[in-house]
Please model this.
Amino acid sequence: MKYILYSDILSNINEDILCDLLDSQDSVINTGITYPILDAVEAAALDQCRTYLNGFYDFEYMINTGNTDVWDSNFFRNIVLDIMIYELECRVSPSAGIPQLRIDRYNGTIQTLRDIAKRVISPKWPSKNNVYQTSTTILIGSQPKNNHIY
Model:
């Protein structure tokens, strides 16, 4: 996996449940085995985040694991984890039903990403250079009144 570690996943899901989802009899952490499905769900989760965040935030900088000390990455990591676990549940057991907790967390995470994209929520994440221009201060869907200076 590129960004998320196994220990990060285990902070949000019980190891026994994760092993059941992966059809594994072994402990995920102790074996060092890589699971292609985890790589696939991580890629899907990062792509979903990229869709919402790439316009304003420097997404490639954010997912570079060497840069996580520079900015507060825990909030972003939890967003990616919620999407990953939901995607894992969808891919592995869609007919068995996804637990309501996972559905609620996923929906809340997607709403958070939408709010971040609309700048309703403004985390202190690395932004792209030159994203603010004086001629583009109107934001579609914004609620507060914008004072425009010409």
User: Anything to note?
Assistant: The radius of gyration is 18 Å.
